[in-house]
Input
Amino acid sequence: MAAALLPLVGGPANITSVAHCMTRLRLGLADRSLVDGEALRALPGVLGVVEDDTSYQIVLGPGVVARVTADFEALLRQRTLKEAQKARNATPVKLALRRVANVFVPLIPALIGCGILAGLNGLLLNLGWLPSLTPALAAIATAFMALIAVFVGHNTAKEFGGTPVLGGAVAAVVVYPGVAKVTAFGVTLAPGQGGVLGALAAALLGTYVEKYCRRRLPGTLDVLLTPTLTILVSGLATLYVLMYTAGAVSTAIGTGANWLLTTTGAFAGLVLGGLFLPLVMLGLHQALIPIHTTLIEQQGSTALLPLLAMAGAGQVGACLAVYVRLRHDESLRTTIRSALPAGLLGVGEPLIYGVSLPLGRPFLTACVGGAAGGAFVGLFAMLGERVGATAIGPSGWALFPLLAGDGGLGAAVAIYGGGLATGYAVGFGATYVFGLPRGR
Output
């Protein structure tokens, strides 16, 4: 009843005071226009509504009103704590990462679709099937990646308060073939140099130039000069500074990822697989989205994602162990049964927030399982059998159609599947033995 009442009276922010008498819940409201009086009166258990100059009174009846008021106040405290926690977590770094994520997350459906088509096309080429169709599939699968900079620019301007089409126009400079005639720092530029990072930087600069112009130019000149100056200033900066700089950063990311996996693959997998769940909890995993996109753009796949996906395997294994150990806790077992299919497909939040994190220890043992799975996949990268994902977003079993590897699709599937099995097994074993207090 309390949970049903709260949104109908305008939500927590609209409540200024809570009290009750023998039969009525008496609320102080900041804005009575936010109340849905008709829905309130239709709510089962509400006997009537009375308004006076000092309070908004909901008639619930004797006995009931005291219990509902207590729960209503508890809900308000809970919401207040959540808002305070959210405010504490909203650090400048996390806010910046969230905004960068907002640029790339809308691109994930296209990355998934094109990634699956690219994998299908590669399979057809390897088998020698439908040779007349593979050129068409290749064109469809790669067209988006060839122009992804434009979409990044569009979304960047939209996210940071600029005109989206101007952000796309500035970012289009990065992939325009004509940049091959431009020389910066004594080096001839290549189309696509700087990739999505260059597009992000170009559109961000364009947004600031646009805002600067709009604040200072009169309306009669704004419509002509603002878009012109935005594209000109940002375009020149992109050609002579940003593409070169972002290209160096992108190359360093690709080189660093390759070095990390070929020289320290098992250790890197252990660290990445073991720490990914805490990164998700802190919101820091969003920093990896541009890195994944850069690797896909450069190399056709990101070898980091299969390592990070092992965290979900450890989570599944840990929750299965909880399910087996806590046979008497039917409520928790019901939660696990309902959340497990999503966990197997890489959606781990229901298991994290519904099972492992509230219990404490299973969250840590899930990280152990993720570390073991990551070390398994990373070990094969050291042996020359690197596994990558051609798109970001899916994880768990849903990542199988998007796998690519140095040894072909079959080897990639086998290694990734072995990593999942390792994560499940170690997560289960660690949780079964160490993850729950004695007596539970």
